[in-house]
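Supplementary Methods. Inverse-folding protocol.

Structures were first reduced to a discrete structure-token string of length 284. This string, shown here, constituted the complete conditioning input.
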């Protein structure tokens, strides 16, 4: 792999040099943001990737869908639609989780001091404001796990700033624990709701029907590109409006929904508040 070489904004050579090493890349616009979806993919009309859980483009040849567009395929990277994006790009980004990495993004001197005190030594890449500490291994991404500290791994992107210095260290538990807000994870409680009005069997007690509803809610949350708070509340409301009065929901179902929301950056408290507000809205 090479160090950054894009003084004139020619980012395609760097991207092509990273791909053979298993580093999925994508172009970034000014402001360190991905290129927007093309008209055919606007509002995810194309369907995107399945649940947006795997990197790579949809059938659209453009670099759509943010981090999920990151790829190691040189034919995709140098395709005409991508080539145009590279010419306009301000930087090269990569999907750390797709490369088997986790990036601890330290944005200020206090965060750097904390890392040097509490984290195992590993490869360090300098940034404009701080440092990226790279570890071998993947985990869920999360923002603001501490003041000035973000975690970038699965379903996230980081700017490519070169190889850095030092050997890679295996991802330790102390970093995985950063995404847990409380000392001990609190499982969402099972929902206690009235029995069916006529006392009969639950009309929705079909495993396939319930599973499809939970999966659709997870997908809706996962694919949210903005207004995450509102999307999470809407998904919780939709599930509860269908299954909240018949006793279908279990702790496992609510835990899945809470997990999907936390992967998008919601705190456990926000998840609990959204669930409680949805129950209140429905009079449950």
């Amino acid at each position: 792999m090479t160090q950054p070489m894009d003084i004139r904004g020619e980012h395609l050579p760097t991207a092509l040099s990273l791909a053979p090493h298993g580093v999925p890349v994508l172009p970034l616009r000014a402001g360190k943001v991905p290129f927007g979806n093309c008209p055919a993919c606007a509002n995810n009309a194309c369907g995107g990737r399945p649940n947006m859980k795997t990197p790579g483009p949809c059938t659209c040849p453009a670099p759509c869908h943010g981090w999920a567009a990151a790829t190691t395929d040189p034919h995709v990277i140098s395709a005409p639609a991508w080539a145009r994006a590279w010419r306009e790009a301000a930087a090269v980004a990569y999907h750390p989780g797709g490369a088997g990495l986790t990036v601890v993004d330290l944005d200020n001197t206090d965060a750097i001091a904390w890392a040097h005190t509490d984290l195992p030594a590993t490869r360090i890449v300098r940034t404009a404001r701080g440092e990226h500490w790279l570890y071998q291994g993947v985990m869920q991404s999360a923002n603001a796990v501490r003041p000035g500290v973000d975690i970038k791994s699965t379903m996230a992107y980081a700017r490519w700033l070169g190889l850095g210095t030092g050997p890679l260290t295996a991802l330790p538990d102390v970093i995985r624990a950063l995404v847990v807000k409380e000392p001990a994870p609190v499982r969402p409680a099972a929902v206690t709701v009235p029995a069916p009005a006529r006392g009969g069997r639950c009309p929705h007690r079909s495993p396939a029907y319930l599973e499809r509803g939970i999966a659709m809610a997870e997908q809706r949350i996962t694919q949210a590109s903005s207004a995450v708070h509102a999307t999470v509340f809407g998904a919780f409301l939709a599930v509860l409006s269908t299954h909240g009065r018949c006793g279908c929901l279990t702790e496992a179902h609510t835990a899945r929904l809470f997990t999907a929301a936390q992967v998008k950056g919601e705190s456990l408290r926000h998840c609990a508040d959204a669930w409680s507000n949805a129950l209140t809205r429905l009079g449950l």
